[in-house]
Structure formats: C-alpha cells, structure tokens
Amino acid sequence: MIIPEKPNVAEILSVSQDTSDTKTFEVEFSDKNLQKKFKFRPGQFMMVSVFGFGEIPISISSSPYKTNSINFTIVNVGNVTNALHKLKKGNKIGLRGPFGNSFPLQKFRKKNILFVSGGCGLAPLRSAIYAVREKKSEFGKVSVLFGCKAPENVLFDEELKQWQKEDFQVLSTVDNPNKTWKGNVGLVTALFKHVELPSKNTVVMMCGPSVMIHFSLIELRKKGFKDEQMFASLERLMQCGVGYCSHCNIGNKYTCIDGPVFNAKDLNKLPVKED
Amino acid sequence: MNYIIKKEDLPKFLEFLQKKFDQVIVPAKNKTDATCFQQYSGQELFLETRTDFSAKEFFRPAKEKMFSFKKKNSSFNVEPCFDTAKRVIFGIRPCETHALHALDVLFIKFFGEDRFYSIRRKNTVVIALQCSKACENGFCTSLGTSQATGHDLLFFERGSDFFVKVETEKGKELIDSKFFRHTSDALPSADISCKNSLDTEDIEENLYANFNHPVWKEESERCLSCTSCTQSCPTCYCYTTKDEFVFGSDTESERFRFLDSCQLKRFTEVAGNHVFRPSREGRLRQFVLHKLSYYREQYGVHLCIGCGRCITVCPVKISLVEIANKIQKHGLGAKK
Amino acid sequence: MRKTCNFSIKEITKIEGHANLDVELKDGVVEKCELKIYEGQRFFEDMLKGRHFSQVPLIVSRICGLCNVSHLNTSIEAVENAFGIEASRQTNILRDLATNGEFLKSHALHLFFLALPDYLGRESVLEFNKEENKFLHWGLSLKKSGTDIIKLLGGRIYQTVSIRPGGFTTLPKKSQLDKCLPLLENERKTAINAIKLFASFSEKLSFERKTDYLALVDSNYSFVKGKLHFASGLVIEEEDMLKHVEEFIVPYSNAAQTSFEGKSFRVGSLARINLNQKALEPAAQDIIKGLGLRFPSDKIYYNNIAQAIELLHLIDSSIRLIKELKLEKEEMQKIKPKEAFGIGVTEAPRGTLYHQYSFDEKGFVKKANIVVPTNQNNHPIEEDLAEFIPTLLDLQQEKANLEIEKIVRAYDPCISCATHFLKVNWKNAKYNL
Amino acid sequence: MSAKKVKVGFFSLTCCEGCEFAVLDLEEKLLKAFDYLEIVESRVLMEKIKPEALKLDIAFVEGSVISKHDLNKLNYIREKTGFLVALGSCAATAGINGIRNALPKELQERIRQKAITPVKEKASPLSAFVKVDYILNGCSVNELEFLDFLNKVLHGVIPRLEEVPVCFECKLKGNSCLLLKGIPCLGPVTYAGCDALCPSQNVQCIGCRGFTKDANFKSLDNLLKEMDSGKKERYNFFTYFNQLPKELRHLRGEN
Ligand SMILES: Cc1cc2nc3c(=O)[nH]c(=O)nc-3n(C[C@H](O)[C@H](O)[C@H](O)COP(=O)(O)OP(=O)(O)OC[C@H]3O[C@@H](n4cnc5c(N)ncnc54)[C@H](O)[C@@H]3O)c2cc1C
Ligand code: SF4
Ligand code: SF4
Ligand code: SF4
C-alpha cells in the first residue's frame, strides 16, 4: 500500500558545514531497495521530516547520476531546519519524494545555458549543473551566476572554483563585501553585463528569492531573452508535496505538482506577485 | 427498487443501523444551537434544511493523527494511524454528496489515494435526503448539484412517510423488512428552485481574467478574515501538518494534520515572516477563485456545490454569488 | 530576638499577593506592628465606573485568581438585586455547586500547598520527601474534585464565563455532572484524612487570642444566603453590613482594614464554623465530635482545621446537590436596566465578601464599593501579632520570623483581593466614591 | 530533551495571580513536568528567593507593571533570564489593569496622589519596558497552551504566535456565531488559542487574548453599530482587556 504522506526512514551519511548557517547533508534510505530504485530529475524536491519537529520541502542538490546517496543543502531558518542542523552522521530522518517537475534538460540539448542563483537557490541548480557537467558535450556554453549577502555566505566555494577550471563561466557577487572579496559587488542582475552568452540559443535556469527572479526576468528580457527560454524554480509554503494541502497554490497552478519549475511564459499568466 | 418507511419508524431504523455500524451520524443541534452532524444517541434530528456545518468532519476532520513515530534502536518506526470506523451518514443533502464527489476527485482519483481520506470514505454508507424546499442562500440549481450523486440510499419526504430509492448494493443491505415496505409508486419530484442564482457560463475564465477587478477590494474591506466561510464549506480541505512530541517523551512523537484556512495570513507565511498573499483582498479572492475557477480547471469539477453556507455564516454578509455575478455582468469577458 | 529592635519581614511568601511586615519592639512590647501591603493597587472600583452592568461580573472576577466565582456570585447577586431579578431555584442550586467547587479548590490549595509546609517544617512543597509527597496528591485530587465541577458549570476553572446575571449561558448535561460523583465519593476519605492530619498539628501553633467573628449564617450552611452574625451577638441583614462594619484606611498599607464597634474581628472558615457549626453536613459534625475538636475556638491554627472540615462538608453537600438536581433547560432571564442600587453579600473561601453598586438608567455603573475578606482579616492579624511577637523573644530572629509568617499564613490572606480597593476619601465632591 | 533540567521561575507583578494557579491546574501533568524542570522561584510555592540560584532558562512573568517596585523586579528578572515569557493578559497587554489608563485624567491623577506605594501613570505590559521573548496570553492563561509551550521548549522548539482569530477555533468547534444572533463578539479580532472558550459557552469573546495584528476593527465596529450598540457600549466593549485600537479613536469621548 502506497501512502503518499508516509515518510521513509533515511540515514545521514555525512554532514558538511558550508557556511555559518548552511549545512549539506548526504543521506541514504535505510531500505536499500528504495535507494536502489530511487531516481530523480534536477529541480525536484523531497519532503524531509525530522521526527517530532516537522516536515519541510527541500530541493535535491546532488547529481542525478549519483545514485547511492542524496544530498540536501539546508539553511537554518526555523524550527525544523534548526532541529536538522543538530543532527549528526548516523541519525535518522524521514524522506518522501521526489516531488514536483524539473528543469526540462532534455529540451536544452545543443543550447547554451545560463544559471542564475541567489542564496541557497544554488542548491537545486547545483543538481542541474552536475547533470549538464556529466553530459558536457551535449550542451553549449555554460555560465553560472551566483549572488548572496556577504562573502561568508558563499555556497560551494570549492566547487564554484572547480567549475570555473572546467571552463564554465562562473561569476559571483555579494551585497556586502569585505576586504578580501575579489568578486563583484551588487545584485545578481548586475552580473548580466559580464555574461558572454548570446540571447539566442541560450536557456536560463534560475532559483532564488522571489525579488531576484522578478528583476532577473525583467533585465534578461531587456537583453533580448524570450520568455520561452527562461525557467525559474519558485518557493511557496508546502505541507504535503502532492497537491493535497493547497498551500502552494498560485493562480490555477500548484507549486508542488505543476512546479516548482515554471517557464517564464507561464509565470506571466500567474499571480506570482500578489499583495 | 423503491421503498417506503414511516417517519415515525426512523428512530427505530437508526437504532437498527447502530447495531450494524460503529457510528450512525445524523443532523442535529449542538450545545450552541448550531446544526451539525453528530453521532446518533436518540437526540431529536434536524431535518428541515441543510445543516449549518457540513459533514466533512467525518471525512476530513479538523484534527487528525496521521502517523506515530517511535524511536527504536536509533531508527524510527513510522506507523500510519487510520480511522477505520464503519459509519453510516443519514440525512446529508444532495449538494453535499457532490461535495464528497469533488473531494474524491482530488483525494482518490487524481494522484493516488490519500488513505486517510479514502479509508473513511469507503467505510461510510451515505443516506442522502432530498430537499423538498430551497434553502436560505443555496444556489445548487445553478451548479447542477440539486440531484444527489454517489450515495447509497436516497430519502424523499412524502407526507408522513419517507420514500426511499435504493442506489447501491450497500444501500440495499440496509433495507430491513421490519421498517420498509416495497412500493411501485412513481419517484417523487426532486425539483426545487433556489432564490439565488449564479451565472456559471465561462465562469472559470471570466473570474480569472478579472483578477484585478475592483469588486475584490470593495468586498474585502468588510471582510473580518474570520474564516467562517472556509470552515463551514463542505469542500474546504486545505490542511497544515504539525509534529508533536508525546508529553514527557524523547522518543515518541506524532504527526497531526489540521484544517487550515486560506483566509489566514499564516496560510502563505514562510520562514523569515514572508507572506506570499498578505492582503485581505487577495485572501478573499483566493477563496472564491479556488471554489469557482482553479479547481475546475485542474480537476474538471467545481469545488463549490452551491450550498450557500459560506454566505449564511458570514457575519458581514459577503456573498461569493454576488461577487461572481457582478464580475460576470460587468467584468472582462462579460457578455454584452 | 532582642527585646528592643526594629525588624521587617520582606515579601511574605506562600500567600496570595505581596506583603511586608514592619515591627517595632521596645522592652519586649510591640510598639508598632504594620502589615504593609505594597502590591500595586488596581483601583477596581474606579475602573468599574462607566462600565455596563453586563461587564461588571466579568471585570470583578479578575480581582482574584483564586476566588473568582465568589466575586462573580457576589456581583451577580448585587446586579440582580438592583434590577429586581429573582434567580430561579435551579440557577441558585447551580451557583451553590459552583461555589462549593471553588471552596474545594481554594481550601485544598491553601492547606496542602501553602500551609502544610509550615507544619511539616519544610520550606516548600518542592522539598517534600517521598513520604510527604503523597500529601500533594491528596491536595491535587481534592482540588480536582472541585475544579471538575467548576469547569462543567463555568466553562473553565479560572475566570469562569457562563455564570451570568439572569442565569447560566449554557448548562452541562446531567450525565456529565453525575460523572463527578464517583470522584467526590472517593475524596471523602481524603478529606477525612486531611482533617485528621491538620488536627494532629495542634501542638505546632498554639497561639490563641479572644476576639470577635463575623460570618453569614444560614440553616443550610449556605455561602450565599443568610444573615450576618457577629460572635459578640449582633445579627443583621446582609445589606446592612456597612452600617455596622467600618472600613478605614491605614496610612502605611495599600489595603484598607475594618472594625466593628471599634474592634477587630476575624472572618473565614473558623468564623463560619464557630458561628454555624450545627448547620454543617452530618459527617462533618460527627468528625468534629469524634476527634474531640472544640468549636468555637480562638486558636488561629483552628482556621486550618476548620478549612479541612469544610472540605468534607463541601464534598457531602455537593454530592447531595448533584443527586437532588433535575437539570432542565432554562432560558436566561432578560434584564432591563434602570436607575438602581444593589448589594450582594456572600461568603468567599476567606470570609465575608461585600459588593455594592449603583447604576444609571442605562445600566452603567455610577459607583462601586467592594469590601473583601482580607481587608477584614488584616486588622486581627496585626493585633494577633502584637500579642504573639513578645512570646518569641528567646528565638533567633530568623526562627521568629518564620513563626510570625505562620500566623499570617494560617489566615490564608489573599492580598491580591485586598489591594484592589484603595479607599480614597476625596474632598472634591465630583469624584466622591 | 537535554539531560540537564531546565531552570524556570514564576514571578508575579500586579495581578490576580490566577495565571500561576491556572498552571497549577495541570495537576499530575505538572508533577510530571517537574522531571524536566527545576523550579527555582515561585512565590506561591516556596520560601525566599535564593539570589545566587537566580540564573534562569525561562521566566514566566504574570501581572502588569504598575509601580516602581514592579519595574525594578521586572528588570532584575530580565537580567537573570534567558527566555522571558509574558504570562497572561496583564503581562501581555496590561489586560484588565489597563482599564485604568482610560479613566479621566483628573481622576487618574488623584488616584496616583493617594496611592501608598508610588504608582506609575499607566498600567503597562511587560513589553513596554523589557524584551519579551514569547507571549502566553489570556485571562487566565490556557493551561493546555502552557503545557504545549513547555513541551515544545523542552525539545528546543520555539512556538510562534500566529495570526489566527478566535473565530477560527470557534468554527472548528461547530459553534453557531454570536454575531449572527446579534450579540457583539470580539472573536474576529482576538488571538485564538483558548479553544474558543467563551463562544462555546454561548458567551461573547471579550478579547482577553489580545487583538490580532490582522484585525479589521473598522468593519467589526460598523457591524456592532448596525446591531444597535451605542458608542459608549462599543467603547466599553473594545476596551475590556485591550487599549483602544487606533482605528477606533472616534469611540473615545465623554465617558
Ligand atoms: C520546493 C522547495 C524547495 C526548497 N529547497 C530548499 C533547499 O534546498 N534548501 C533550503 O535551505 N531550503 C529550501 N526550501 C525552503 C525550506 O523549505 C524552508 O526554509 C523550510 O521549510 C523552513 O522550515 P523551518 O521549520 O525551519 O522554518 P519555520 O519558520 O519554523 O517553518 C514552520 C513551517 O512552515 C513551513 N515553511 C516555512 N518556510 C517555508 C518555505 N520557505 N517553503 C516551504 N515551507 C515553509 C514548513 O512547513 C515549516 O515546517 C525549499 C522550499 C521549497 C518550497
Ligand atoms: S463555497 Fe460556499 S456555497 Fe460553495 S460549497 Fe463552499 S460553503 Fe457552499
Ligand atoms: S461567535 Fe464570535 S468567535 Fe465565534 S465565529 Fe462568531 S464572531 Fe467569531
Ligand atoms: S473566547 Fe475570547 S475572551 Fe474567551 S477565553 Fe478566548 S480570547 Fe478570552
């Protein structure tokens, strides 16, 4: 009997501290069969339970080609995430999923790719970046843009450098620089002028705070990007992940089943910014 | 096959049902004089019109335990907690059978079963009661929900008798010869005419197209965000889950789900106190659009079944029929 | 303790509210003994001005967390009295029941949580040993037998809501009330044990002083109805209380005091049993005889025994009331306000409670006057202490302080009630209260 | 739950102390909680405070700040405490004590002159003077909410105050609405958490748990007006436990 709301027990294999408030958890289903069968597409998320504390939606940040474990990159912002951050290697959590749609990578063959991310929005994109990296020859040029508050909030620092070496264009920016910061300063949108990709034959994948997405879309349109070329992953309150709880409803779409990835063309029709 | 039962035999019939089912649910008054569905215990029934509160408590309870988590040898046992009581509901109105149908679509048919709902649903025998007069604010005739659907037995009031139409095998099993006798009379008429009427033509598109119509703001200025509408509505199903530790225990916890309401700010509030739908206007619009537009587009049925409860219970008399009709008449897409 | 000294006890604990005691001792004679109640005043009588009569019971029930039902009942009596409403028989019985519940709760809490540590020589209930912990369970279960009733009748235990002028807003089912019976029956044993327990402490606090007593006396031991009796002989009608009892301000304290013919008098459980022993439930009378307890008594610790005896009486009387009750649906009486004046007098757990209001023609309060039991007891407490302290001279100061506090606590004073009624004698007629 | 006991204290400023007793009402459940709690201070329960012991994890403070004495005590508690909880409406909104703040100026002044311990101009909630970490509102507090709070805090979870009105819980309980029966009710503007105690007893909510931020006072006031509630009645009604909201200033007048 499949119970969509039922969490499966999973074990934390390792925890790494990315920044002061962000940790990456590598986990594996305790049921080995489940782990073997487990497949996901970049952009999908899972419902992560800390028993007794609650359940939250978290994007998968590892490569879809890595099948023996799953990675989550999680910022400590509230009660469940705080409880998660206290867990250590060997502790058990609950997992359901994967849920949601994904970035339609198969449609992006032969195209250049621009990743735009803000804060922990890099997490779901990381999964897509790994997927692209794995099949590098099938895609065109790749640029990764990343913005965050301050240098100490930079996520996956080593990996960003590694990707750069592997001839991805990687650009980072912070709002509040310190003395040692060598990268750019300002919002992610300020990086667009450095992007070498032509607006034609390039697709954009973005994830981050809603304001970032809002302004990125505006700026990129100015640069000649068509809505059909741009995809954004949205965030909404979620309690179930399977369309039952209705919290993530935006217009006639549900972020958990119709999203979280939306094409900018569809976004135009949705009341994303409601007040 | 049709039957007749004397009205005076109804209590005996209900007692008979009590022997067969764990719970017999009937419409009656509660402590505060509100009419609602409750377990039968010989109390006086309320059969005049539809109840103030719907029967959703028995399908989608306000608070239900979903799982219990027990820590065991550094791992966890995850035990789902199903409500397997066998119930029979007597006296739900035709419109509400449509409410169950609308919920079935989402919770049983569309993505795979929500067991917490479907087990209750399948364990419940539905005895519907045909309305003989239109209720205060109902508009079921506009939505085609005045004839029952998916029920097991249908009762019609006829003088000092009930005329009973058997719809399913499950229903047939309840026809006990002690109370029922066979009849070949024609089916009584089930026509009623509601005072309220909703213009449903292209309503999904029109309402959505009028997202920024001034009527939303105008009406919402009065709105108290008291959530009475969503709570009395037989189809409002949105929920929030919460985990709680069993008091005094480190190792045992439980997951509950609670009925929530889109009229509350917390409905869209995420960590960091960001609220995606903060304004009263937006929240009111969400209610009406979810009922009359979004759900139909997603799942093919309206989530509103025209019972008029939300209109009756609103302390400041906001009516979704009035709002929708206003838009149908004056908004974008209005037929000239 | 030195024969001549000044000392003060700061923040007397395990009483309801905040009070200090200042003492001046000269050559073994108490020159000054002032119970200083410094808890901030809340000015309830002023706050009530301009409030609608329907709000009055709800506001005054917030005077005291422990005896809110008493304040409710008294103010309701005053309001009904003013507007000519006669409560139905059933309503009266239910109010009696609620009152019983509150007395049970209040006495159980005071006896087991506040007074008992004194007798067992412990600092607090938190320091009880395993053996003594069982007394906490006694206290809690006795309390529960009372709170169950209040919860059923009033909707909640503190600041109950459904007891209103004109009747009850909702009634419990008879079957729910019947469910209280087994617990009550069961608690009779505990109550008897409690009486024995507190009677066994008679050696520990033997102070005795002859003084006057005041209580509402009624052949049913009612806490709501009856005539006011003074032990010294005077019997008066409820509404005449303030014609005889004088309230006066003490310059050092936030609470007023009272006197009768210039002298102090005690109120509370001891006063009630002293004056009305024969109206107690039979079992309570029997146990008094059985244990050889003697009322009337002037020993202050007898107040605690009296409370324990009342526990048994309350249980028995509640059982009787519930058994006799036929609960019928009753509409609340409608009240038409008019320009009027009303008085309510009842017995609260700690003694006689007096409420008086005058209303304007729309039912808004023009003037309110409330006299609470603790105001009446503050005066005898001071006089007791003036006599008691000189007997403590061989004790160390700290030990002496403890003995003094024990006397204060034996009264079960409720300071939070007492301070809310600062009496202000205005010269300006406009605000003459 | 951590192995170390959590140190808590109960303090009362000016109030009826009903909240502390309401907590005692948890009875056996509270005794069970003592396994995890070390009660360092509770004046109702124990003897003198031991100042050196006063380093508290959680302080529950009931009552309003009315005098200098209250204020000193509050500051002292705040200094010694990690997490300060306002217990009950007196501490959270000044509650019933706040009624005095709206009395005529002249009368207030005279009261102040006559008071024996100096009284502040206003009865104030704790938050007027110190940082309050959490509010358990209500007159008196709901003991189950208190227990829930304890249960969460013992596991390191901090509950949050949600913008939910009493009506939400009232409807969950299946009550008929008093406003629809023409009885004024403050349910729509009052924080839930009491399980709609009063409406469930057919009594209107009088707002003891404080007004929500999301409250639509104007609309409710209009509704009460339509129900023939006079200006003075409405003023009375809105100021039971709360200060008159800005939106309703027009109700203030000759009282
Ligand atoms: C599709 C999706 C993918 C996400 N991926 C990530 C990720 O990879 N890494 C990451 O750090 N965060 C991610 N988030 C955000 C993450 O879900 C929230 O930070 C988290 O729910 C906060 O929970 P909390 O209990 O710590 O906070 P609290 O403020 O205590 O939240 C209480 C409850 O509100 C809900 N809630 C609060 N904030 C959010 C939110 N932003 N989204 C959804 N529900 C919320 C949860 O149900 C939570 O249990 C994602 C959100 C969505 C919708
Ligand atoms: S929206 Fe209103 S009319 Fe429609 S089903 Fe719900 S309560 Fe009934
Ligand atoms: S009775 Fe009061 S609390 Fe209940 S729904 Fe009506 S207005 Fe809200
Ligand atoms: S209903 Fe209102 S007045 Fe009653 S307890 Fe709840 S918040 Fe307080």
Topology:
The complex is a heterotetramer of chains A (275), B (336), C (433) and D (255).
Chain A: E1 8-19, E2 22-29, H1 32-37, E3 45-50, E4 54-59, E5 70-75, H2 79-85, E6 92-99, E7 112-118, H3 122-134, E8 142-148, H4 157-165, E9 169-174, E10 184-185, E11 202-207, H5 210-222, E12 230-233, E13 249-250, E14 253-254, E15 261-263, H6 264-269
Parallel strand pairs in A: 7-8, 7-11, 8-9, 9-10, 11-12
Antiparallel strand pairs in A: 1-2, 1-6, 2-5, 3-4, 3-6, 12-15, 13-14
Chain C: E1 5-9, E2 19-26, E3 29-37, H1 44-47, H2 56-60, H3 68-83, H4 89-120, H5 130-154, E4 163-164, E5 167-168, H6 174-178, H7 180-199, E6 212-217, E7 227-230, E8 235-236, H8 241-244, E9 245-248, E10 257-260, E11 265-266, H9 269-276, H10 282-290, H11 302-324, E12 340-348, E13 351-359, E14 365-371, H12 373-388, H13 397-410, H14 415-418
Parallel strand pairs in C: 6-11
Antiparallel strand pairs in C: 1-2, 2-3, 4-5, 6-7, 7-8, 9-10, 12-13, 13-14
Helix pairs in contact in C: 3-4, 4-5, 4-11, 5-7, 7-11, 9-11, 10-11
Chain D: E1 6-12, H1 18-24, H2 28-33, E2 37-42, E3 56-62, E4 65-67, H3 68-80, E5 81-87, H4 89-93, H5 105-114, E6 119-124, E7 134-136, H6 143-154, H7 166-172, H8 217-226, H9 231-238
Parallel strand pairs in D: 1-2, 1-3, 3-5, 5-7
Antiparallel strand pairs in D: 4-6
Bound molecules: flavin-adenine dinucleotide (FAD) and iron/sulfur cluster (3 copies).
On the 0-100 scale, what is the average pLDDT of chain A?
Answer: 86
Structural class designation of chain B: alpha+beta
CATH architecture of the largest domain in chain A: 3-Layer(aba) Sandwich
Strand line-up across the major sheet of chain A: 10-9-8-7-11-12-15
Query: Cα distance, first to last residue of chain A?
Result: 42 Å
Task: Describe this entry's structure for a reader.
The complex is a heterotetramer of chains A (275), B (336), C (433) and D (255). Chain B has 336 residues and is of the alpha+beta class. Chain B is 29% helix and 24% strand. Chain B is globular, with a radius of gyration of 22 Å. By secondary structure, chain C is an alpha+beta fold. In chain C, 43% of the residues lie in helices and 17% in strands. Chain C has 14 helices and 14 strands. With 255 residues, chain D is α/β, with parallel strands linked by helices. In chain D, strands 2-1-3-5-7 form a five-stranded parallel beta sheet, sandwiched between helices. Chain D has a two-stranded antiparallel ribbon with strand order 4-6. The chains are: A alpha/beta (275), B alpha+beta (336), C alpha+beta (433), D alpha/beta (255). Chain B binds chain D through residues 30-34, 36, 52-53, 57, 62, 221-228, 231-232, 244-245, 247-248, 250, 259, 261, 264-266, 269, 280, 313, 315-316, and chain D through 1, 29, 32-33, 35-36, 147-148, 151, 155, 162-165, 167-168, 171-172, 174-177, 179-180, 187-189, 199-200, 202, 214, 216, 218-220, 222-223. The structure holds flavin-adenine dinucleotide (FAD) and iron/sulfur cluster (3 copies). Flavin-adenine dinucleotide (FAD) is lined by residues 45, 54, 56-59, 73-75, 77-81, 120, 123, 235-239, 260 of chain A.
